[in-house]
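Interim report, section 4.2 (structural modelling).
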Amino acid sequence: MCPEPDTTEEPPRLAASLARLDQIVRRLDSGDLELEDQMALYVEGCGHVVTARRIIQDAVLRIDEMVETVQGTLETRPLAPEE
Amino acid sequence: MPEPRPAAAPRKAFAVSAVLGRIREVLDERVPPLWVRGELGSWKRATSGHCYFTLKDQAAQLRCVMWRSDARRLPTAPREGTEVVVFGRISAYPARGELQMTVQALEATSAGGLWQLAFEALKAKLLAEGLLSPARKRPLPPHPACIGIVTSRGGAVLHDMLRVIQRRAPWTRVVVSACRVQGDGAADEIAQALDRFSRQPCADLLIVARGGGSVEDLWAFNEEAVARAIAASPVPVISAIGHETDFTIADLVADLRAPTPSAAAELAVPDGDEIRTALDALPGRMERSIRQHLVRAAQQVEDAAPAMERAVRRSVERADRDVEHAHERMTQLIRGRANLLRQRMLGLGGHLEALSPLAALRRGFALVSDDEGRLLRGAAEARAGQPIRLQLADGRLHATVDAIDMHSTLEEPDVP
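Predicted structure of the assembly:
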């Protein structure tokens, strides 16, 4: 069973969690680690699994539109639903 | 039937403009729009955008005009000498007394037409610059956090793509850079919409998309401005223009071509269900990995035990031999040392023997002492009548001093 993950203040990103999980699995598969290090990676990996699950579960699609202002600068704003 | 001869000079003759005007009316009323085939000559585009050219064959030529509104749909200016077909109306141009065809559409008859010629020309140019090289194709990010979409704002294309992303990867952010995707100036708008993602690089991946349409409708995606904007994108670009059978220059320059806009969205984002399944399996996989290493380590220990035992036994045996050898060496050394000491003691014994006063006594000397045992070292220490003791080698004599002669000298005794 995975232990509960540490909560972080950083906004979690799925790509970062999945990339770290990929690294962890590769390192564990490599077998060149002490048992203590393997256990530490396992705990960290479980944390990322829970984080990634939560991101997927809570996800709400965010749709923005990039527009050019009259000053010639770019501005990103939510795409209006009716548009 | 003979040609009627003119009578005398008429009182009333038609004005030139009336004649030409009437001819124009007849042409406009009686001759419907038609296709004409011929070789294109003297192509000229005026600053107004109207195009003037001639169509000719071996026996005749026809002046043509194509107004700007129609000419702008041409993918490229046709080269003189190209065999073309044109569609339009024949009319008269009274000011010059000429026939003129007002052309609404123009197509090259060879090699797939004018569109194909323009397509091939730009393709050859980009190919020469290396912009179509497979080596330039970049891999798509496996888990893009943000996807930029370049397409028209309304319509089903954007809606379809958003629906796919919502279903597969709702954690993804989508940024739409809207533009017109057909018509005059559309190519520049598409290029600008792409360029916004270079100026504000928020996306990990771009999709440039348009729904199906005619060759003319899709033509903006065959223009150089769009091709160069795609090539300049800092992140990979998926193109999805028209239907699966439509191929544009944008598709050739893009990092990946998708058959449809919905397919582009599928290619752009991973499937959340698959990720969830993989996540569910991960803890078990990590546990198995650790357990396998433990089992392997235990097996290694077990495999190493006999070898370790042999090694320990060899070490103990070697130590035993070393101890035995050292014992022999020490015994030899001690024995040698004892012999040496014994020899030295024997030597010293002889020497001591030689130095001992007993030896002198045995040679005939005597030790003289008073009756209390104090040694007398000279005649002056004795007095006449004093009892003395004479110690010889084999016994002691008790005597009395009769007289003292201080002048008597020592004579060598007869040593036996």
